[in-house]
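COMPLEX REQUEST
Ligand: NAP
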Amino acid sequence: MMIDVFKDKNVMIIGASSGIGEQTARLVNQYGGKTILISRNIDKLCEIKNELGEKSCCAYEMDISDLNNIGLKIASIISETGPLDGLVYSAGVSRFTPIAQAKPEIMQNVFNTNFFGFVECVRQVSRKGRFNPGLRVVGVSSVSSFHGNKARIAYCSSKAAMNSAVQCMALELSKKGICVNAVAPSLTNTNMFKAWLENSDENAEAVNNLLSRQYLGVAEPLDIANAIVYLLSPQARFITGITLPVDGGATTS
Ligand SMILES: NC(=O)c1ccc[n+]([C@@H]2O[C@H](COP(=O)([O-])OP(=O)(O)OC[C@H]3O[C@@H](n4cnc5c(N)ncnc54)[C@H](OP(=O)(O)O)[C@@H]3O)[C@@H](O)[C@H]2O)c1
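STATUS: Structure written out below.
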């Protein structure tokens, strides 16, 4: 990919303070883009901004699960940054939810961040004047959206909902020239994965099970960021409505 492929392009990254979102921000920056970093942890975002350079990076605090606030926040951010060329939605939470604990408020909580926040962000950025021609949207889903996992009803179903929304939004937004896709990572070496490992023996068993199918081992955030950046790039012009597994073989067995 050309080193200045994102020159003069504005890419908003929701969930940019760590893991896959942070790595994507670094890569977009490396390829010449301007990054708009968003998450709840403004201190961490400012650290990244200072490292990447204030000219090509800005940071905003936002709790994406506060759904009624997204519209005002995004309108105000875009009035400062200018219209977007890319939106990456990497914010996500994983929660232990065996069926007995999957109460509506717990399901709602996970869906707010993993699903409703995504749809609301796309709804907001696809409004007139908020995007440049050829806007690319990339959601971060999961291979967990493709198959059942023990005690993960909320997480898996929220990611499956994202995949379906990607197909619907890609169809509807094609008339505006907007492409909407997702990537589906398997186990990736981030804070979320580490927290999962530390949680319980039951998780360790689940991780070993998943890893036995993930032939290439645990992914690094850069492996996923590379796929996201490809989907944001002009080279992916003809791709829309897909959820691309980036999974070291996990979905092939
Ligand atoms: N790691 C894996 O094995 C794996 C596998 C498949 C899919 N994924 C998906 O990859 C995405 C990124 O996760 P990660 O692995 O990179 O984990 P991570 O390092 O824990 O990153 C999660 C990101 O989500 C942000 N976030 C969470 N809740 C938020 C909220 N309410 N408002 C705004 N931002 C919020 C966090 O920012 P703040 O805490 O600063 O708000 C952080 O930047 C997630 O959607 C996850 O489901 C991960």
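REMARKS: The chain has a mean pLDDT of 95. The two ends are 31 Å apart (CA to CA).
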